[in-house]
Amino acid sequence: MKDLFGQAILDYQNGNYSEDIITSTSISEEDILPLPYLFRSYSEMPKLEQKALDLAYRKVLDVGCGSGSHSLYLQEKGLDIKSIDISEGAIKACHLRGLKNTEVLDILDEAETFDTILMLMNGTGVFQELKHVTKYLTHLKSLLKPKGQLLVDSSDIIYMYEDEDGGYWFDSNKDYYGELDYYVSYKGEDEEPFKMLYMDFELLKNACTAIGLKCEQILEGEHFDYLARITA
Q1: What is the DSSP letter of 162?
Q2: What are phi and psi of 194, to 5 degrees?
Q3: What angle, 0 to 180 degrees and rounded to 10, lies between the N-to-C axes of helices 47-55 and 69-76?
Q4: Taking each helix axis from N to C terminus, what angle separates 88-96 and 4-13, rounded to the nearest 10 degrees?
Q5: Per-residue pLDDT tens over the stretch 14-47
Q6: What are the percentages of helix, strand and coil residues in the chain, rounded to 5?
Q7: What is the CB neighbour count within 10 angstroms for residue 226?
Q8: What's the pLDDT at 181?
Q9: Considering all CA atoms of the chain, what is the largest pairwise distance in Å, rounded to the nearest integer?
Q10: DSSP state, residue 42
Q11: Beta strand 114-119 pairing with 102-104
Q12: Sign of the four-CA dihedral 121, 125, 127, 130
């Protein structure tokens, strides 16, 4: 991976902002992801993210922290926050922004335990594909302290498959319509495509129930998205 996402975040942090990230998926056209959006304050965040931050308590793990905006808010509130991401550029930017506990780390390699685990901005994307969900949830379960919670958001993207007649079309080669190939471009360079999973709430709930986790919907967003709290 070229880490174009991390490069863009680091450019913005270092005052070298000249253009935005371009994203697309296997079922959608190119879209612009403005870099300033990744550096938003609490007041600029969607209600789902605000609610998740309001519910976070004690020792917190921010998975896929990106530029660190969620972590910074919690650190300023006095919480014990650890921020991890597989992007070296993103973690460098987090360090420059003043986050005290950051690490380039895949969630499957995390070994500490936490009272709150945050997975935001389509947190189920970390699972990549449906076949990996049980593996990830089982590991996340092992990272929760007694009475700990996992706060994760995602979207039911079935609406993206609706045709003009009100029916739905699906790729028969996919196990689930929420499995997408995700593409990132920045400053004329293309990142290697990677897998991204969007899960509808009932599917996430069923996956949790199968391994002894409780999953409840905390808040519903304005566009088919939701925030879920998962506990043991």
Answers
A1: B
A2: -135, 165
A3: 40
A4: 20
A5: 999 999 999 999 999 999 999 999 999 999 999 9
A6: 35, 30, 35
A7: 19
A8: 96
A9: 53
A10: G
A11: unpaired
A12: positive
Say how far apart CA 227 and CA 121 lie, in whole Å.
10
Dist. CA 203–CA 27, nearest whole Å: 21
| Tokens (6 digits) for 72 | 């910074």
Among 208, 211, 68, 69, which residue's Cα sits nearest to residue 150?
Answer: 208
- Residues 190-199 have pLDDT tens digits of 999 999 999 9
Give me the residues paired with residue 23 across strands: 31, 184
Percent of the chain with pLDDT over 70: 99
Q: Is the dihedral of CA 44, 45, 50, 56 positive or negative?
A: negative
Burial class (CB in 10 A: 0-12, 13-18, 19+), 132: middle
* First-to-last C-alpha distance (Å) of the chain: 35
pTM: 0.95
For the chain, what's the residue count?
A: 232
Q: How many CA atoms lie within 13 A of 25 on its CB side?
A: 14
User: Which residues make beta-bridge pairs with 83?
Assistant: 62, 102
| Rounded CA separation 192/17 (Å) | 23
